[in-house]
Protein 1
Amino acid sequence: MPASLDRLLVIDDDRAFRESLAEVLIEDGYGVDVADDATSALARLAALSPEVVLSDVRMPGLDGLELLRVIRERAPNVQVILMTAFDDMPTVVAAMRAGAIDFLVKPLDLHDLRRVLRRVFDDRRTRARADASRTAHGPPDPLSLGDLVGRDPRMIEIYKVIGQVAATRANVLIRGESGTGKELIAHAIHLHSADGGEPFVPVNCTALPATLLESELFGHVRGSFTGAQSDRRGRFALAGRGSIFLDEIGDTSPEFQTKLLRVLQERQFYPVGADRPERTDARVIAATHRNLESMVESGEFRGDLYYRLRVVEIRVPPLRERPLDLPLLAQALVRRASDALGCPVPVLAADALAALARHHWPGNVRELENCLTRAIVVAAGNVVHAEDLTLGEQGSVAPAATLVTLDEWERVHVERVLAATGGQKAQAARVLGVSRPRLDRLLKKHGLL
């Protein structure tokens, strides 16, 4: 049961909602007061000194996020829980970055609300016993977010963590299958940090052989190896006080892991061939699809490096476990692909959405993006149907009369992509997933030059 001093202020412009919520909380044993807008809430805040504020986001006048910032300035010991039916990710991140203790989505799950309130008040009592003078410090103002999309509860939790960890310089380990958007999450953490204006430097650790990865990250001095004709700055130096994103860290060699551990411990590195170290202030965000725990047990990955990287861990769910996010993601990816192709945004027909929902998506969001980009190119008119989608073994099978040779299909597909991109070869190469020289060879092969 709540303690006798557990006082709540409920703020919502919907009278029926706030009164019914207040009634439930009073029955649960809380001391509850209500307000219908931010102005009256601030007056009650000064007079009644509640410990926790439960506020709607969308209200006339001062909204919930603005009210949160005022409360953080005037009463930093008061903790704020925001609630809204508009469960968009930028609002969640902004709320957590501005100092909200939690974020609840309407219609409220009373079990979830009670759990959150118990945790909040229990944490307050624990902190009060440990240090009665401790006060909360409000984080910097929130910044805009990037391209993350999703309303799945696990994604909402990820948005909260992004808002929390962005206020620190802690290292982050992002876990998840290939194609789930780990780099987008890393970029969002960087953008919302105090050093978001500094460089964000991504490195795919599997794209370079182990012999070159060290030089790529740490740089080298002239003459340090064959071909090193001049000094070269590495990615750590280029990142400055920004963030360096090490993708697929689980695939690196033991030798590289040892050198990276030294960087994390000492905050300095040696360029290849150098006799003096350079300092780094970059935050390290790493990602992997591998099971690092089993790799540590087998000796394939250093345990001390694992714990250095895993100060904060974010686990990204695969797309197949986020079925409610699929329509949102599809619409967002269609808009993005249409902008890149320079064509009108098509409509996703009901049969296309149904086909997308049936697919298992082993390649996750990356597979979905590629599938929709190709569908936009091949769709007749401005509507994408199921027959326009390429879904591997679960896709549609063409009638025998329409089957063509692989060379003929390749020629037709390249021709369609080139036409859809207005003859822009660079764009066509991106859509096809090939290099520009490879595209030129395909055009020459099929007489399309």
Protein 2
Amino acid sequence: MDAESVQREIAEFHRGKKWIMVPDAAAGATALVDQLREWEPAGIMVVAAVEGVGDLPKADRIRYTRATGDTVMLGMRANHAAIENPDRDLLAAVADFDPDHEALVLGPGFSRASTLVGRPVYGARAKEWWALEDKTIVDQLWDDAGVRRAPSAVVPVAEAPAAAADLSSDLGTVWVADNSEGWHGGGEYARWVRSADDIAPALAWFAEHAVEVRVMPFLDGIPCSIHGFVTRDGVAVFRPIEMVILRDAVRPEFVYAQAANYWEPPAAVRQAMRAAARSVGRLLSDRYGYLGGFGIDGVCTVDGFLPTELNPRLSIGHGLHSRAADMPLGAMERMQTEGDLEIDAAALEETLLTAATNSRRGGLLLPLTGEHAPNKAGVRFVDGRAVAVDPEDECDATMEIGGAVMGSIIIVRLDPARTPTGPSIAPRAVAIFALARDLWNLDIPEMATAPDVCAGA
């Protein structure tokens, strides 16, 4: 399976059709619009909540819902509501672009709807697959797939303190909500309970947002993930990815800052992670008829890799592999789901493994509440310290701040040629965000990194 032949087949399918994209931020669709343009569509419309950070897509039409929220999840849910139940003005704008109702929607990664902005979603995922997002059911899946895990308990919210007393590690426990309020991610529905002082606020928060919680020991080590892709003939498994999850240096809070594949776990850990993904992928295929991308998040601890959650969808790790190999996994997944493309799992695995090994990449982001003026700076590291430079000069990274569905966001683009392979990039993330705080006078807390205690490190 080579990228050129896959691109030809995908281009032929997309040619001459009208497509509608519905990202939260319009700038987030720029690369996909550029790719779609190469496939010669009949037209492209983008419906987004806000402009976002970076260049806007060269679409035939761009329409904004202006649906936002105070947090990442609330912002995403507001925009999903706007495109799942479009108002009269939005429907009129879509009708002006697509009067004959020929357009298909390339759905957002997190919407469960099969119809958006009044048009069918191409490659819509089965409800049974989305149900696997619930963080309270995943431990049974690990057990059924034969994947080693940490102990856990799923209990009513009021019983979480007793469960935590039994399961606490030296650093406490982590509680995560069920899906009473729908899908959630980015650690927004998780709480780190370090001591008795943290119990009351955690109980109060979960009592408003969940019926049950899963309680686990806090796992110390590098947060990481492993990604796979289920086809009709097998399971392709890719390289481990570092999840850049930082810690508030004072409060028991996590800071999700995206992902990169510069980090190298010990060989034995890498093999164990890939074996876990293959077992889980086979179970998903056999039990649910699952197709497409999935990821397993976890932590590389002193006892090796231990999983924490399943993401039954394409995620950031797939994007890193996809761009490295110039293989559009999103289009491939949608076409496979609809029966318009057959994918050889073994060939896909070999292609993406080779590409991701030879082409390291990744970036950082930091959501912020409130609106902040757009700005951009270059970053250069001097003796481990991040220093601001002209973004047009030679630099190790660039950081840019702009609007987002929750208010504002900082997006950091790392230069692959100037980012070391092997160690965690989390220390660089901490240094960059500290620079942003001082340079742009932002309310960003002091952050700390997880220790690299991986077995064999």
Protein 3
Amino acid sequence: MPYILLLLISFLFLGCTQTPKPLTHKLPNNCDVYAMKQGKCIKEKRLSSALEAYDVIFLGDHHDAKVLHKKYAQLLSQIQKDGYRIHLANEWFTPKDNGLLYQYTHHKIDDNNFSKMVDFNKTIGYEYESFAPLYRAVRDGGGNLYGINLTTDERYNISDDNVSAMRADALAFYYSLDTNVSAHRQLLDPFLQHCHAPKEGERKEACIERIYKVQVAWDAKMGLEVAKLAKKVLWTPKDKLVVFIGAMHVEYGLGATMRFARHSNRSFVTLSAMQKPQTELDHAMADFVLFYK
């Protein structure tokens, strides 16, 4: 009898120590939008009202998906039709670009001149016309555009640990960088294993650490700037701050959203996207997931 009891306890212990499988949501066919917290699909036309309760809306982008950009533009237009003013923060730009963005949203320059002054296709690396529907939707609805990213020089200085080239504010930001969030590191590790730009004589491990530090700085900068904007532009219940950045900065709450939450207690929601067809979603990928073909 004691041997049987010991065997049962062993099986129980081994069963409890097995690594659990990732949690997933099974999707029905023809799901427009999946509301993660509700655990169900909703119609796309209901999305704007579902986001209405939040001050800050993070949109996770797939940069090469023109169809998705059109859907996001339609969403922004609907939010404005519902009586809200949109302040769109975009990772393509830095705070130094805010003067130029002001000229665009206030009809002082048109799309053609705007894209040329930014040198969009070369600097950003994507066609301007793919993103233009979002900018036009914001401008035509009386909204504003803002930049939130690091400059190229700031990224290089952080990558090279070039503290002598940093001003006091940049130096304080550099020393504030937190690279110890293990879940974030786990999320990015598969993308970091190939060091695409090693320095001469640099070990792979050192290159990966350097790239990861820049990635953290990228998220930290955008989170910080969004928090600053929230204080600056969210003056009335009819103001909405929409943050248009890459999906990896939004998903699983580990990128710019986590860094934002360290600086602000404003309510925020995450919306990401996936191409159809999909049969399941990782739990907590985003608060809402929009599907597109």
